């Protein structure tokens, strides 16, 4: 295939999709500067009042909760997914690898709503967890998981783990095992080899997975909507309430712009700390 054919068949569609995304973002951006007209679907003239409203406590705490929930989801997803990805790549037993692949990938074929409703049954006051704890006598009354940040984080971690496992498994699979064997031959115990050799070499996958999950969960809607029950709001839920419930499209557009800027900006802020961590782990 010639370079010209590659350009027309592969590069051109990417450019068209990119232009469509840019046009959509530009449309949302221009809506954020329009005046809200109560009782009408039409917007008014130019105004900056929509951005001033973001400083109100309600919107500030929703944005802060979104950052917190996304951060906790990324951290716990990394901690739970790394052992699974490591076992998936390093196990020598074919049946175990197949089982891990099925358990890790199957949730991707289940809709977000279905998985969220399943977690509602598990986390409810009469759900599996509370029923088990009550039967064992570990608690005297049901623990409140639903309509809390904890419940939202648990469901989002389960929702995000397949993607994290795939990214980590790819990184672990590219590790040259000769480095690990060399460290072991020099007398390093398995845990030392893992922490000082395997982890630094898989740091690109760790960073990529953490960044992807953090940015991904910032736009989560169905899970916090159902598990949070209106008591735990993320930016996407607030955009829905303002845009489709109150028909305040300008304010919904402002919140969307803030979420986009926050996601991109947070990644830019995190990058220097990630680079420093990579160098520190590599030097140990």
The number of domains is 1
Give the terminus-to-terminus CA distance: 47 Å
Name the shape in a single word.
globular
Query: What is the assigned CATH homologous superfamily?
Result: MetI-like
Secondary structure: helix percent: over 70%
Number of helices: 13
Low-confidence stretches: none
Q: Which radius of gyration do the C-alpha atoms yield?
A: 23 Å
N-to-C SSE string, H for helix and E for strand: HEEHHHHHHHHHHHH
Query: According to CATH, what is the class?
Result: Mainly Alpha
CATH topology, what is it called?
Answer: MetI-like fold
Secondary-structure-derived class: mainly alpha
Q: What fraction of the residues are assigned to beta strands by DSSP?
A: under 5%
CATH-defined architecture: Orthogonal Bundle
Strand order of the largest sheet: 1-2
- The number of distinct β-strands equals 2
Largest sheet: 2 strands, antiparallel
* Mean pLDDT, all residues: 82
